[in-house]
Design a protein that fits this description.
By secondary structure, the protein is an alpha/beta fold. The protein is built from 14 helices and 15 strands. The protein folds into 2 domains: 220 residues, no CATH class; 133 residues, no CATH class. An 8-stranded mixed sheet has the order 4-6-2-1-7-8-12-9, with helices on both faces. Strands 11-10-13-15-14 form a 5-stranded mixed sheet. The protein has a two-stranded antiparallel sheet with strand order 3-5. A hairpin with a 2-residue loop joins β14 and β15. The longest helix has 18 residues. The protein is globular. It starts with a strand and ends in a 19-residue tail after the last strand.
Length: 378
């Protein structure tokens, strides 16, 4: 039997979902359904992908379109999903929220039947799938709520897994712990080789922080959302029934009541219940535009990085780490240089390279690295 998972939030959630799949001791064969929604630093077009925004999808194997290494986004769109499809130990398939909540439910139900499974696992990295809607830092609740509502309508037994509470910067860990049952379970101390490969190039901060926390890294980490704490709970996963998640998620209940037939209709429900429309907000942010550098000169970059780290250490004396994405974007570089940056860190700044994060500890730049890379503990 093939396991069926849903990466509830899009972006880097397929990475965290595959880590949860491994930690649950599930079978080797799994399909991860995910939205194609990248943040503006990756995809210049606001909003989630529809199926027609890709070429090379496999429409024949399942009721949902499989993303393959031959899949390509239609310009000017950009996506990390095709490269992820070549790295994850699971198959990766596209959820299209433009089909509305009932369309999503139909796809999920038919996919479960095609795989011969009677259960769906919904995974959210960060925990905003349990948001009430009044959290001041809540930013992207819509896709998570659509996943919950669709699974309820699909009539398939559903377990919701929350991992890395607070690591997406939307709902604080201390708030989420009051909504999660028990102490959760650990993801495991060893980073699978496939995950180490992915984290060398993928820009997801939440999944990177999840891996770092599971490895035992502790303390405040600077991200694009500010300083987020890595705690003893950050590398754990909690499981709860769909009904409990729906009790918390007012937007999902609203979607069940209104049954929006399109993504635009779902956006209106979010606007009415929560007072904001995240897709419209992303459109406004994208319209402002920004210019990034996609080429790195080694000497220039290392000098800029050293100066940036010095400023962060002085301005954030309690912080221990920074995400690579935070550094790259703060210095005005494109996310696609991530792999090159990690190579430079390993070769020229091993004392800073605390894979998968950067160390803010005040020590010699050429000092010993705290931790290794693929093939060793996180």
């Amino acid at each position: 039997m093939t396991e069926l998972f849903i990466a509830a939030g899009g972006g880097g959630d397929p990475v965290g979902t595959a880590l949860v799949h491994a930690s649950l001791g599930a079978g080797a064969d799994a399909v991860v359904l995910t939205y194609g929604w990248e943040r503006p630093s990756v995809d210049p077009v606001p909003g989630p992908f529809a199926a027609h925004d890709f070429t090379g999808l496999d429409h024949d194997s399942l009721p949902v379109a499989l993303v393959t290494t031959g899949t390509r986004p239609v310009a000017p769109r950009a996506s990390t999903l095709p490269r992820l499809a070549g790295h994850l130990p699971t198959r990766l398939a596209l959820l299209d929220p433009h089909e509305g909540v009932e369309g999503l439910a139909d796809r999920i139900a038919r996919t479960a039947r095609a795989l011969g499974t009677d259960r769906v696992h919904v995974v959210d990295v960060g925990g905003d799938v349990l948001a009430h809607g009044d959290e001041p830092t809540l930013a992207s609740p819509l896709l998570d709520a659509l996943a919950l509502a669709a699974c309820h309508l699909a009539g398939v037994r559903t377990t919701v897994h929350v991992t890395g509470p607070g690591l997406d910067g939307e709902v604080p860990e201390e708030t989420l712990l009051g909504r999660l049952p028990g102490a959760g379970s650990g993801l495991g101390p060893t980073l699978p080789p496939w995950a180490a490969d992915v984290l060398r190039w993928h820009p997801s901060e939440a999944s990177t922080l999840l891996a770092a926390a599971a490895a035992g890294l502790r303390g405040p980490c600077l991200t694009r959302s500010g300083a987020l704490p890595l705690t003893d709970r950050s590398g754990r996963v909690w499981s709860l029934p769909l009904s409990r998640a729906l009790e918390h998620n007012r937007l999902a209940r609203g979607l069940l009541s209104t049954r929006p037939a399109t993504l635009a209709d779902a956006e209106e429900v979010s606007l009415e219940l929560y007072g904001f429309n995240e897709v419209a907000r992303e459109r406004r942010r994208t319209a402002r535009g920004h210019v990034t550098r996609d080429h790195i000169d080694r000497g220039t970059f290392l000098s800029e990085l050293d100066a940036w780290l010095q400023v962060q250490r002085a301005g954030n004396p309690g912080a221990r780490y920074a995400s690579v994405r935070c550094a790259i974007e703060s210095l005005g570089y494109d996310w696609r240089v991530t792999e090159h940056v990690r190579d430079l860190l390993a070769r020229h700044r091993p004392g800073v390279d605390t894979f998968p994060l950067l160390s803010l500890l005040d020590r010699l730049a050429d000092g010993p690295a705290e931790r290794g890379h693929a093939g060793v503990p996180y």
